Amino acid sequence: MSAIVTKYVAEHKLNKEMRYDFSKEQAFILVPDQRICRSRSQVTSQMGGSEAGEVNLCQISDLIPGAETLEMIAQRIAQDNLSEKDAESIAKALAESASNDSAGLSRLTRLRREMRNLGVSEKIISATLIPEITRSANKIQKERSEQRENEGIDFPDHFSLESVKERLDSYDISNTPNIQALADVTIMLCIRPAEIKTLRIFNGGVTGYAKNRGQQDIPRVFRSLEKNEERASQLLTWIQEAISSRQLRDPGVPGVKWFNAFLKNNRFLPETGKPLLPRYLRKLGAVFAVVAHGAKNLSEAMTIASEALRHSPDNHASPAKNYTIVNYRKRGQPYDQAKAIKIFDEN
Q: What are phi and psi of 334, to 5 degrees?
């Protein structure tokens, strides 16, 4: 958030040796109170009650918005009936403080989702759209996609289809799951971190998936490397209950490092030296589902991959180009014999 402060100080020609009275909206933009590392008494109003906040600029530390921060920001926008201009300022502050425009766009997308859930008007929500951030983020994502096409994702024997399936079959749901079980179930259901606690499986369908853009939560077809729907549902519930009871940490909290650290363990490092990342697990799951279901041709493989990833049937973009560029090999097979699975028609 230092970028927010720097920008604000420059625009308003403020002096850090002095103290200033900010409006409630200005103070909120600079210092979201649920993320302040210092005592809230240091930023509460001295003169204006709830209508103003006296902030010492020297006390503002670097802050990184997380899931709770975005939820609280959306609540503040809804409860205080902030204007379009205020919403736009908040959106710019969130985007500009992100590590890059792709991360900034992700923040704004989540903010808009929270705002819609709270019934905020579309006019206010639209004020958080920043075209230049969207264009830049799309460019970054395109470059990353092209890089994935050229390199592919490697995985160690520990995360081969055979190894993952063996562990999934052996898990006793009466025991407490560990981080390995979390990784395996994430692969099994191609789970996005943001939907780990909301996903539900029943009657051959899946609900609670992310990226439905505020639309009705229509069940998508259940498709997984674990073909037994009941078993898949049991394993998912097992993980979700462990997260709810805090026996497992939530991988959906932005900025977490522990999941990355687990996957980058030396014993999981592929021979190619490229470590697995949390976002790769979803991609592995899509390819493993295609292999497990024995796709006979390109069309069938595309259908299985799309269903495993829970893509909208109306989405005509190739899911494989974004998700399933994987150097697939069987357990024990040399890396140089891996087959680059690209489930899309380049023509």
A: -60, 150
In DSSP terms, 328 is beta-bridged to 339
Tokens at 51, concatenated: 């209508």
Question: 141-174: buried (b, 16+ CB within 10 Å) or exposed (e) per residue?
Answer: eeeeeeebbeebbbbbebbbbeebbebbeebeee
Crossing angle (nearest 10°) for helices 179-188 and 229-244: 140
| Beta-bridge mates of residue 20 | 55
Hey, what domains does the chain have and what are their CATH numbers? Answer: 2-141 (no CATH), 152-341 (1.10.443.30)
Tens-digit pLDDT profile for residues 17-74: 545 455 555 555 555 444 433 333 333 333 343 343 333 333 323 334 444 578 888 9
- pLDDT tens column, 194-240: 889 999 999 999 998 876 555 677 889 999 999 999 999 999 999 99
0.90 cut: is pTM over it?
A: no
| HSE-up of residue 218 (Cα within 13 Å, Cβ side) | 8
